[in-house]
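Reminder to self: tokens first, then the designed residues, so the page reads top to bottom the way the pipeline ran.
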């Protein structure tokens, strides 16, 4: 089945400057946008302007004092932040607020479609048996309900990325945790109960794991290279605590693993966990640094590997989430690898 792709973007993503020669640079996003424009299915893209998140929304996950501190640091011209391994400048805070806002924009769009669908159904007059017999001749067929899987798939080429950012600190090129905030927003604003986050960036999303470590309503699943950044994080045995025990799944992979090993691990560990959890909404931390071309990652996924990943994730979204899924860009540092991976992944999601 063919679907449209909701794409939330804002040029502010290009304005954040992580420092001269930094691998997390604006051309990454330009490469993604150019690849999408060139995709044979470009006419299926529905473009949305990513709004700015509010400080209160960012504080769904982060310490409010940290959010305000980042605003002030950037406003004063910025500085190099060692834990972030990147610099921030004046444009970094507005970019970070748009990156968070992109996810929220997509959430509102996906849920609005849903809500308007329900409204239309309720508005369809229900006839009693007698009435229906009497009016049979003049009755036109009931309006077709909105396509059940139309415009429920969203993507944003978010920059800066987010999955390393913790409660009160930036980390690993990330300022605010875009995907974690989106999960909380879906729950608090749109009444979604169970959210699954699948993180296929080559690095472990320590910040996202931390945000939901004790939370049984958000399943966090990460596939990443074993013993790579952020070190001592993402171990197989780390599975959450207290009520959240069993709602974190880490799948570390040996350096050099390719499509075959990756997908085998996905089928063996991730699919059963997602089936068992049965999420109402699927979120994806979509980093493309597990691509074989990537200069930072040590895995060897190909474009067709990303396609296979997409096929599996879409099946979960269709089975449990009424097709609702949003992917946010995390890493990916080779421009060709990014463009190829993103279009293979999204093309498969929308049935192209
Ligand atoms: Zn990464």
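Designed residues (352 positions):
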């Amino acid at each position: 089945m063919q679907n449209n792709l909701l794409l939330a973007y804002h040029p502010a993503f290009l304005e954040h400057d992580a420092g001269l020669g930094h691998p997390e640079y604006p051309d990454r996003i330009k490469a993604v946008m150019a690849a999408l424009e060139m995709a044979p299915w470009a006419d299926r893209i529905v473009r949305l302007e990513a709004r700015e998140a509010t400080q209160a929304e960012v504080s769904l996950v982060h310490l409010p004092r940290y959010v305000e501190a980042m605003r002030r640091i950037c406003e004063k011209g910025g500085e190099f932040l060692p834990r972030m391994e990147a610099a921030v400048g004046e444009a970094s805070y507005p970019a970070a607020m748009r990156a968070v806002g992109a996810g929220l924009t997509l959430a509102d769009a996906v849920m609005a479609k849903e809500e308007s669908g329900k409204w239309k159904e309720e508005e369809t007059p229900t006839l009693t048996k007698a009435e229906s017999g009497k009016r049979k001749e003049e009755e036109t067929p009931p309006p077709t309900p909105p396509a059940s899987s139309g415009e429920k798939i969203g993507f944003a080429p978010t920059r800066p990325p987010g999955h390393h950012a913790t409660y009160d600190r930036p980390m690993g090129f990330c300022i605010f945790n875009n995907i974690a905030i989106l999960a909380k927003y879906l729950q608090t604003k749109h009444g979604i109960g169970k959210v699954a986050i699948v993180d296929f960036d080559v690095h472990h999303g320590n910040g996202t794991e931390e945000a939901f470590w004790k939370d049984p309503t958000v399943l966090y699943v990460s596939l990443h290279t074993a013993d790579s950044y952020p070190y001592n994080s993402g171990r197989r045995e780390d599975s959450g605590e207290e009520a959240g025990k069993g709602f974190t799944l880490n799948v570390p992979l040996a350096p050099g693993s390719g499509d075959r090993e990756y997908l085998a691990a996905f089928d063996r560990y991730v699919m059963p966990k997602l089936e068992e959890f049965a999420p109402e909404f699927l979120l994806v931390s979509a980093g493309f640094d597990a691509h074989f071309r990537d200069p930072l990652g040590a895995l060897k996924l190909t474009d067709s590997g990303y396609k296979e990943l997409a096929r599996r994730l879409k099946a979960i979204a269709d089975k449990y989430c009424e097709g609702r899924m949003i992917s946010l860009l995390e890493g990916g540092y080779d421009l060709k690898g990014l463009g190829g991976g993103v279009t293979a992944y999204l093309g498969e999601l929308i049935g192209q």
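Residues 201-203, 287, 289, 330-331 surround zinc ion (CB under 6 Å).
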